[in-house]
Design a protein that fits this description.
The complex is a heterodimer. By secondary structure, chain A is an alpha+beta fold. In chain A, 66% of the residues lie in helices and 10% in strands. Chain B has helices at residues 10-23, 35-40, 59-69, 83-88, 103-121, 167-173, 215-230; strands at residues 2-6, 28-32, 47-51, 74-79, 95-98, 125-128, 133-136, 140-146, 149-154, 160-164, 178-182, 185-188, 192-195, 199-202, 207-209. A five-stranded parallel β-sheet of chain B has the order 2-1-3-4-5, with helices on both faces. In chain B, strands 10-9-8-12-11 form a five-stranded antiparallel β-sheet, with helices on one face. Classes of the chains: A alpha+beta, B alpha/beta.
């Protein structure tokens, strides 16, 4: 019987090891590359746990004399966790403290809750069989022993399953809720996160210490004396588990809100930029109007000059030509803001990448655009910036490469799809569990916002964005409903 | 494949016809100098190149009437001035080429158009064994699960077909145009008119549920569907 229990314990510790590598692996970057790495750690952790249980005789939650053992065991398993985290992951970050303590706390809480709930069940199973014996349903001793052992084993297995389930579900919830995994946690935030976990850990310790008392030299469980505790204790433990989970959720919501706020500040800046450009555009137009007015004057000057020196006339005409060039609209899309923006971006871009080919033949915006021009400007601006940067990078690496940006619009009903294809070097750093690829700009805090800004915008218009890589072509696709967006944006963040 | 070229300028007509012949030597090609000429013709065309600025009936009006006659026609406008394209935007989907016609662009557009024609002609069957019935997948609007039965809502005259099957089975058999938007619904993305955050409206006016969790995924899938040949240019 004892041997079977021992055997049963193995998968449990192995499962804990698996959970550990899942939990840490979701947050921290692995130190070594390789598939067996995490498996190796899981096995090591399981071995450590198993070793601990051998050193301290056995899993001794419900024994009277050994609470010091539990204290030591807890301290040692925390140590093991820290060491493993350090060895296998780049864990020199504040978040590791949270991870290790939370992992231990969740493990202990799920174990204690289940054990307390099940201890009653074990007793009642024995009662049922006793009742059966009295009624004469079970007659032989052998049969009784068999059913007893069998049912105890079944209860034990069920108990382990419940522990594992509770444990895994809680960890997964934490991993899911903790969305901003790269966020550097500050000290107060760390304390805020650590408090519920540490409290949970100590509640478990407290329970262990007061759980068993001696009464006439017979060990008695606390909840035998106060039966109501079979409900109260699990409730306390579960509440403490919930407080860990909600702490994480709350913290993440806060981080998310802060991030959204800073993104909005950037957006505001961009809108301001756009307004400046619009003013610039206005000025160009008024200049054109002025020039039309001045046509007579200009002609007079040309006439005058043609009578005099030839060189001066040529100079004047060259000047005039340049002015015209400056006013020339290279791109026509049916949307003035888009035209202006593309012209501006094009002139900026050709300075960096002289032979950039910008194809807007298939970029047409409908006449009844209900999407705000500013928003179109922000979307196009960010998308073009990204594309130009990719082309520039490609050009630096391979000066011979062909560089292009192609725009296509499609329309279906009130849906507007905008597609941007650009050449790039074919290397995209995707971050695991992140939506957008890595920015290659040195200032990571403020950059890498481009795609996030676009996403905010298209979601404001109940649309979406996505990207695709086809060999050395990067395809960014955006879809919007052609209607007035929610003014506030962030419509579908959940 | 039947292709018509309509242009009142002989030079352009000749250039386009030449390019078409070069790319698709075995197609049936006919050219017309006016829109009226094309409309009087009884023959059905798959692809029509249309000049927008023409004497008499202009390209846009021609297109409008042509659509009434035959709504699966694939239009390619040819214009010297992009501004004219804006006028055509309220028409159905179409492609366009800017003059002077660039050979590479021409090839790309004609390829897309031909692909579209092929897609319209291709019938992907969907066989229902128990009824001994074959449906064209394009005719399926959406599929709804009702207890142990599923209802296949179609655009054709058969309307609703009830069979015993599981959604998983059907989902596996149907092509990429179909999306499982809810436990009890599979929609054909070709027949979506509108979506919002918890429902999708089908061309026949029915509304089906969209699972909250799938909203983001669905919108993305639909976007790529529209891009990859769901609808042609513009």
């Amino acid at each position: 019987m004892y041997k079977t229990m021992e055997l049963l314990y193995m998968p449990v510790v192995l499962f804990q090891g698996y959970c550990l590598q899942y939990f840490l692996g979701s947050f921290l970057e692995s130190r070594w590359k390789g598939r067996w790495n995490s498996l190796c750690m899981a096995v090591l952790y399981a071995a450590g746990l198993y070793g601990l249980s051998r050193v301290f005789h056995q899993d001794s939650v419900l024994r009277y004399d050994g609470y010091w053992e539990t204290v030591w065991k807890m301290a040692l398993s925390l140590c093991i966790l820290f060491v493993l985290a350090m060895c296998f992951y780049k864990a020199l970050r504040p978040v590791s403290a949270f991870l290790v303590i939370t992992f231990q706390a969740v493990a202990d809480i799920s174990r204690y809750v289940t054990i307390i709930l099940f201890s009653k069940m074990g007793d009642s199973v024995v009662d049922i069989w006793n009742w059966c014996v009295e009624r004469g349903i079970i007659t032989s001793d052998r049969a009784l022993m068999l059913t007893l052992n069998g049912s105890i084993l079944a209860v034990q297995i069920l108990q382990y399953l419940v522990i594992a389930l509770l444990f895994y579900v809680s960890l997964r919830k934490i991993v899911r809720d903790f969305k901003e995994k790269d966020y550097e946690i500050r000290r107060t935030e760390l304390l805020f996160l650590l408090t519920p976990s540490a409290a949970g850990l100590f509640v478990c310790l407290l329970l262990r210490i007061i759980m068993v008392t001696l009464e006439d030299k017979v060990p008695k469980m606390l909840y035998d004396r106060y039966p109501i505790l079979t409900i109260v204790l699990p409730a306390i433990l579960l509440l403490s588990l919930l407080s860990i989970l909600y702490g994480v959720k709350l913290f993440q919501d806060m981080v998310y809100r802060n991030k959204a706020k800073s993104e909005r500040v950037i957006l505001k800046n961009q809108v301001k930029n756009m307004q400046e450009h619009m003013e610039e555009m206005e000025r160009i137009y008024s200049e054109i109007r002025g020039m039309k007015h001045d046509m007579k004057n200009t002609l007079a000057v040309i006439l005058q000059l043609s009578m005099e020196e030839k060189g001066e006339l040529q100079e004047y005409l060259a000047d005039l030509n340049q002015t015209f060039d400056r006013l020339d609209m290279r791109f026509r899309t049916g949307n003035t803001v888009a035209d202006t923006l593309l012209n501006m971006k094009y002139h900026e871009a050709v300075r960096l990448v002289p032979d950039l080919e910008m194809d807007t033949d298939r970029l047409v915006f409908p006449q009844d655009m209900r999407i705000h021009s500013y928003d179109i400007g922000i979307i196009l601006g960010n998308a073009v910036d990204n594309a130009v940067r990719a082309c520039q990078k490609l050009k630096e690496k391979e000066p011979e490469a062909e560089v292009f940006i192609r725009f296509v619009t499609l329309q279906k009903g009130n849906l507007l799809v905008l597609k941007l294809e650009n050449s790039f070097d074919g290397k995209l750093v995707r971050r695991p569990r992140e939506e957008f690829p890595m920015t290659d700009k040195p200032d990571k805090e403020n950059h890498g916002m481009g795609l996030a800004n676009i996403k905010n915008m298209v979601e404001k218009y109940h649309g979406t964005m996505d990207y695709m890589v086809k060999g050395r072509v990067f395809i960014l696709s955006m879809m919007m409903k052609n209607e007035r967006g929610n003014e506030d944006g962030f419509w579908s963040d959940k | 494949m039947n292709i018509a070229v309509v242009d009142d300028e002989k030079v352009i007509m000749g250039q386009i016809s030449g390019l078409v012949r070069k790319q698709m030597p075995d197609c049936y090609l006919e050219s017309y100098a006016t829109g009226e000429g094309l409309l009087e013709e009884a023959k059905r065309f798959d692809i029509v190149f249309l000049d927008i600025q023409m004497d008499g009936m202009d390209g846009i009006e021609t297109a409008r009437r042509l659509r009434k006659k035959q709504d699966d026609i694939v239009l390619i406008f040819v214009t010297g001035n992009k501004e004219y394209v804006f006028d055509a935007l309220d028409l159905y989907a179409f492609h366009y080429l800017l003059k002077p016609v660039d050979e590479n662009k021409f090839r790309e557009v004609l390829e897309r158009a031909a692909g579209e024609v092929a897609k319209k002609k291709e019938k992907r069957g969907f066989f229902i064994k128990k009824r001994n019935l074959t449906l064209d997948q394009a005719d399926i609007l959406y599929i709804e699960s009702r207890a142990k039965k599923v209802e296949i809502h179609t655009a054709g005259s058969k309307d609703i077909i009830e069979i015993y099957a599981t959604m998983e089975e059907l989902d596996g058999q149907l092509g990429e145009d179909f999306y499982r938007c809810h436990r009890a619904y599979i929609v054909n993305m070709a027949h979506i008119t509108e979506y919002d955050n918890d429902s999708i409206t089908i061309t026949n006016g029915d509304k089906v549920y969209l699972t909250k969790k799938k909203y983001g995924d669905f919108v993305k899938a639909y976007m790529w569907y529209l891009q990859n040949g769901g609808i042609p240019g513009v």
